Write the C-alpha cells for this entry.
Amino acid sequence: MKRVGIVGLGKYLPKRILTNLDLEKMVDTTDEWITTRTGIKERRLVSKDEAASDLAIKAGRQALMDAGLKSDDLDLIIVATVTPDMQFPSTACFVQSGLGAHRAVCFDISAACAGFIYAIVVAQQFIARGTYKNALVIGAEVLSSITDWQDRSTCVLFGDGAGAVILGPVSSGGILSTYLGSDGTKTDLLLVPAGGSRKPASYQTIKERMHYIKMQGNELFKVAVLTMTEVAKIAIEKAGLKPSDIDLFIPHQANIRIIMAMAKKLNLPIQKIYLNIERYGNMSSASTAIALCEAVKEGRVRKGDIVLLDAFGAGLVWGACVIKW
Ligand code: ACO
C-alpha cells in the first residue's frame, strides 16, 4: 500500500458578502443573536449565474497549480456536494470539462458536511492501491440555493464556497488514519424533503417550501458535540497518537459553540483550532476543505505538523482524518 498525502490546495469564495446586518433587514433576527449563538458574522453568496461546478473549477484550478500539475495529470475527480449543478450529470463531470481533465474518472459523493472527508477516504483507497496516482478532491456547495430565506432559524447559518485538494503518493507523512460513520435513523434532523424521487417537484411542494433545508438545530447540536468528539478520539487513537499530539484541529464550521464544547472535551487550547466560521458560516462539505486550505496558506501548518480534520452532518454522517504534513 502506498502512503497518500495532500500535495496541492485551492479554494474559491464568491465575491458577494451577506452580513448579519443585511439579514436583520430580511428576517426577524439580530447581529447579536447570530454572533452569540453561532459565531457567524458574514457569509459569501454566489451571483445569479454561478453554480457549484463554477466554484469547484476555480478551487480545483488553484489546487492543480499549487501541486505543479496539469489537468491531464488527473486520474480521478471526486466532488463532495449536496448542491450539485443538477440531479445528473455529476458535478464532477462538469468540473472535468471545465478543467480539461480528459483522462480523469469523475463522480460525486453525497455525505453532507462530512462529504469532503468521505471523498478524501475514497480517493485514498484508489491511490494507496496504485489504481490511480493523482486525485482532485473538492468540497463545493451553493447552500444559498436550498436555503429558505424566510426561515430565520436556518438562513443565518449557511454560505457558499469551494475548497480543493490534490491527493497523491508521498514519501513521508501523509494520511495517518481515517474514520467514517453513519446513522440513518436520524435522517429527519436535517434534510431537504422535496425535489427527489420521494416527493418530486410539484406546485404543492413548492408552495409548502419543501425544497429548502429543514433542520432540528437544537437536537443536532447535542449529537454533533458528542459524535465529533468521539470520532476525533477514535481517529487520533488509530493514528497511534494522543489529543495533545494534534498541532492543528480543523473542525467542520457549523457553530462556534459546538467547536468550543468539543475543544474542551478534547482538552485542546484555542490556539490549536482553526476557525473561519465568522467569515463564511457553514458551507457543508466546503467548510473543512476551505479551512484546511486557508490554514496551510496562512502558515498555521508546518512540515511535520499533525492536523486533525473532523466533520459531522445530515444523514447523519461523520468522519475524521489525521494527517502528518
Ligand atoms: N434570530 C433570533 N432568534 C432566533 C433565530 C434567529 N436567527 N433563530 C432561532 N431563534 C429563536 C428561536 O425561535 C427560539 O425562540 P423561542 O425560545 O422563543 O422558541 C430561540 O431563538 C432559541 O432557538 P434554538 O433553536 O433553541 O437555538 P439554539 O441555541 O439551539 O441555536 C442553532 C440554534 C444555531 C441552529 C444551533 O442549534 C445549531 O448550531 N445547531 C447545530 C447545527 C448543525 O450542527 N448542523 C449540522 C451540520 S449542517 C449540514 O449538514 C448542512
User: Anything to note?
Assistant: The chain has two domains: 4-172, 176-324. Residues 29, 33-34, 37-38, 112-113, 152-153, 156, 190, 217-218, 220-221, 224, 254-255, 258, 282, 284, 313-314 surround acetyl coenzyme *A (CB under 6 Å). The radius of gyration is 19 Å. The chain has a mean pLDDT of 97.
